[in-house]
Amino acid sequence: MPSILTIEDDTATEAGVVPALASAGFTVDVARSGREGIAMVMAGDYDVVALERRLPDIDGLTVVTAMRGVGIETPVLVVSSTTSVEERIEGLRAGCDDYLARPFSIDEMSARLEVLVRRRMRPATTETSLRVGPPELDLVKRKLIRRDKDLRLSPTELRLLEFMMRHAGQVLTRTMIFEGVWGGNYDPATNLVDVHIGRLRNRVDIPGEPSFIRTIRGSGYLLPEEGMPNDRE
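Structure tokens predicted for DNA-binding response OmpR family regulator:
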């Protein structure tokens, strides 16, 4: 059974959520503070973490930052009563995978957790690199090799470029990119995709040459396959 760590200080919520998740097929452990949650996630091997954003000792995102800082990529579902666009963007940038707004149904929470678990448990691949034209993405060393230069990528840059290289030659909408890279539902009010595309371009583009990633006005973005024109529209 998939294992979940819930980090939740509200005993009433815990009393309702834990039995329901257990009935849905999860093995559930509970941490009642952020610091306890950090210790448990560092010591355990969980398939997914459900995290209350407002904790009594530290901000929930501090837990996520601590996880990502030591390379723990376990998916995180953040539960919050104030899920403004700004807060969701802050959480996604910190390394969260999905957001769930209060009040919520247990069925929705279970469904979101199941999606995150399935994503993590995709069959392992022996593929260690991707190539689109001359540029090569090293998935193990997390770097892009272009013109004999090694560009180290952040985890988000790596996921974004990997997603686009796996879909080279295909016009990708912002919704497709958001769901493929960050998971969850795309909010048209957020510019998160555009911001990260811009940052990635700044990292990988070569001055005086067309952008590595092409903008398709009114549609989204395209990473051209070898031989395709890659002028920005």
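Residues 107 and 232 are 44 Å apart (CA to CA).
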